[in-house]
Each structure stands twice: as C-alpha cells, then as structure tokens.
C-alpha cells in the first residue's frame, strides 16, 4: 500500500536512455531498441501507479534528438504514433490522464492528432497522470516562457516589480504540474541533457546502470527506496527538519 511508504515521491521523472546500446549489444538496428523501449514505457506507466506515484513524466524525445539520422527520427515518430493509437483505449479504461510538455506543435500531424484525442479523452482523470516530454528542451521552454512573460508585462497583465519564481513559473509548460521529486536516468549516463533544469532544482537524482529496455518495476522500486533513504533539506539544516518550529522561527 502506497500510504505506508513515508516519503513516496509524488512526481517521478525519467530520462529513458540506452535503447540504442541495448540494440547494438544484440547486433540489432537501433530502432529495435526503441521498439523494446516502448514496451518499457507501457510497463513503467503501470508500475509507477502500482507503487503509488501520482505523476510520471517520461522524456521521450528531446529537441536535440531531431539531429539524429533522418531514418531514426522518422522511425521514432512512427513508433510514437503507433504507441499512442494503441494506448488510447487502455488509458481511458484505466483512468490514466495523458498530457505533454514540449513543442508538440512541431511534431508530425498524425502524432499531433492522436495526442489531441488522447489528451481530450483522458482530461477528467485525476488520480494518475502520464506526462510525455515530446520535442522538449528546458532551455527552449525557458526562452518561450520569458517571451510570454515579457509580452504579459508589455500588455500590463504582469507587473515587472512583482516578478517572482511563483509568477514566472506560471509561464513554463509545467505551470500546473508539481516539481519532480525524483529524477531517474537509465543507461549509466550521469547528465541531465536539457531536461526540467529549473523544475528539478530540488529533485533527488538516481542514475541506474540498466539500459531502458531492461528497466523493470523492481528497478523503479529500488530507485524509490533510494529516494526514501535521502534527506531533502531544501537549504535547511538536518536539525531544522527534525524540529520545524526552529525553521519557522527564523
Ligand atoms: C533513448 O535511447 C531514446 C531516445 C533518446 C529517443 P537512445 O537512443 O539515446 O540510446 P543510446 O543512448 O544511444 O544507447
Ligand atoms: C536524452 O537522451 C533524451 C531522451 C531520453 C529523450 P539522449 O541520449 O538524447 O541524451 P545525450 O545526447 O546522451 O545527452
Ligand atoms: Mg542516449
């Protein structure tokens, strides 16, 4: 039961990495790794929910990924469309709310269409949300937000002097999402690759050596257990965390 876990991360975000290496290790084309990776997306969506997570964000395609060979990008887009078409009914049946972050308006029309219909069909579900980061890049998101914020100031909707993180963050794509508590990256790489740079300001990071197609519910549970061993201090001292009155008195 999730309620028995003291510090369950509400929002887990995953940098799904290692599909290419998984395929290469087997002498298969990279796209085979992506195909297997989609299976892991499916199992992880349900594993996270079973473990009591409320929101799962999966980094599926970065802005920088367009620079990969055209053949691989095309195959990834086809795979994405196929996956979404297949999952729509399952999400509706299982009450999984789908949403996205990233410049989805630049994705192929077929992908946009199935995204639109799935988001629409699942928008009333509140228990569990799957967020796909598609054509996402943190720096682009910040630039877009800064532009929208500046326009709002120019239009008199925001006062520059009142500017705060609480105000500015409303212009990010993640405006109505909680910050990730736990960020996991698979494949052993220990970098963030332009993913939720600001939102992960106080997230805990777990770098798992397993390649994404091999990532299991047990690996997710292990990452959550590791998260539970950490002390999130948010700038305070350990002593203050034990006695919140002292922190409040400051
Ligand atoms: C992650 O796997 C999937 C995407 C970035 C779309 P990779 O394709 O990056 O796999 P590696 O890093 O080459 O092994
Ligand atoms: C990050 O993986 C992007 C996604 C998982 C979608 P990459 O494989 O693209 O990252 P780098 O290039 O190794 O940093
Ligand atoms: Mg990679």
Architecture overview:
The chain is of the alpha/beta class and 250 residues long. The chain has a single domain, classed as 3-Layer(aba) Sandwich (Undecaprenyl pyrophosphate synthetase). It contains nine helices and six strands; from the N terminus they run βααβαβαβααββααα. A six-stranded parallel beta sheet has the order 3-4-2-1-5-6, sandwiched between helices. Helix 2 runs parallel beside helix 3 and helix 3 packs parallel to helix 4. The longest helix is centred in the first third of the chain and has 25 residues.
Topology:
Blueprint: E1 11-15, H1 19-25, H2 30-50, E2 55-62, H3 70-94, E3 97-101, H4 109-122, E4 129-136, H5 138-154, H6 165-168, E5 182-185, E6 204-207, H7 217-229, H8 238-242, H9 244-249
Helix pairs in contact: 1-2, 2-3, 3-4
Number of strands: 6
* Beta-strand residue fraction: 5-15%
How do the helices and strands follow one another from N- to C-terminus? EHHEHEHEHHEEHHH
What is the architecture at the second tier of CATH?
3-Layer(aba) Sandwich
N/C terminus separation: 37 Å
Portion of residues within helices: 40-55%
Q: How would you state the average pLDDT, rounded?
A: 95
Order of the strands making up the biggest sheet: 3-4-2-1-5-6
